[in-house]
Amino acid sequence: MIEILNPTELPRAKQAGALVAHILHTLRGRSTVGTNLLEIDQWAAAMIAEAGAQSCYVDYAPSFGRGPFGHYICTSVNDAVLHGLPHDYTLADGDLLTLDLAVSTNGIAADSAISFLVGDSRPAESVALIDATERALSAGIAAAGPGARIGDISHAIGTVLSAAGYPINTEFGGHGIGSTMHQDPHISNTGRPGRGYKLRPGLLLALEPWVMEDTDQLVTDPDGWTLRSATGCRTAHSEHTIAITEDGAEILTLPTQVRA
Ligand code: MG
Ligand code: MG
Questions:
Q1: What is the pLDDT of residues 6-52, one digit of tens each?
Q2: What is the pLDDT of residues 46-91, one digit of tens each?
Q3: How many angstroms is it from 138 CA to the middle of ligand 1?
Q4: What is the domain range of residue 223?
Q5: What sign does the dihedral 85-182-176-154 (CA atoms) show?
Q6: Is 256 helix (H, G, I), strand (E, B) or coil?
Q7: How many whole angstroms from 235 Cα to the centroid of ligand 2?
Q8: CA 241, CA 111: separation in Å to the nearest integer?
């Protein structure tokens, strides 16, 4: 199902996006050397509750995971890239952490992910990996707008990731979002321009380029949720929720939109 929001619903989508951005921005600041992933999960839970919002994750039980997720945020470290189940792990200097969060407020969901380095270490390969996903996300957003097609976004994302030298996995990608977190259309992180669903004002999309340094193969962690690179290489993931408007695309999950 592809949902199109009516103009009166857009403010609610913006509210959800601002909340996700605020929580991720806050958690990034708190994710320092010595922070435990379970603390990050507890902080996320508290901020979601304080805002009167609902987690999209706690009871989520899709075909690709094992039972209800049971946590409030995905925390993926180093070789973990998607659906990282928070567990008892203390962050170390130089860890590459991805936080992925989706919440719903007033019936509309927003979804965003950030990757960053913990502490003071800045390994060049990891900086490049994160940079590629951020640039791919920007390119995907730039390709979105009324009349553009899903394939235009996929092509823009894939072009950046390929030029940076990373293999692309097509099992997981972006998606429509609205009254629920995961909706059609699927947005592959590589594709042909001019193909697929034509974008219309009122469509909400979550674009999410993610890469692994030297493989396109995933393995599932024994926890049944966390997806890791098959080779143990590092990974990165950047995601924003955007709204297609009459004029183009508006990013709803920018930290700059955080409420005062
Ligand atoms: Mg996400
Ligand atoms: Mg998503």
A1: 989 999 999 999 999 999 999 999 999 999 999 999 999 999 999 99
A2: 999 999 999 999 989 888 888 899 999 999 999 999 999 999 999 9
A3: 16
A4: 7-257
A5: positive
A6: helix
A7: 16
A8: 6
What does pTM read for this prediction? 0.96
CATH assignment of the domain containing 117:
3.90.230.10
| Integer Cα distance of 162 and 211 in angstroms | 10
In a domain, residue 2? The reply is no
| Number of structural domains in the chain | 1
| pLDDT tens string 125-162 | 999 999 999 999 999 999 999 999 999 999 999 999 99
Separation of CA 204 and ligand 1 centre (Å): 14
Return the closest-CA partner of residue 98 out of 74, 120, 119: 74
Tell me how far the alpha carbon of residue 12 lies from the centroid of ligand 2, in angstroms. Answer: 18
Tell me, in angstroms, the distance from the centre of ligand 2 to residue 100's CA: 8
Ligand nearest to the CA of 207: 2
- Residues of 156-172 as b/e, b for ≥16 C-beta within 10 angstroms? bbbbbbeeeebebbeeb
Check whether 103 has a pLDDT greater than 90.
Answer: yes
Flag whether 58 is in a domain: yes
Give the ligand with the smallest distance to the CA of 102: 1
Which ligand lies nearest to the CA atom of residue 81 in the structure?
Answer: 1
Buried b (16+ CB within 10 A) or exposed e, 223-258: eebbbbbeeebbbbbbbbbbbbbeeebbbbbbeebe
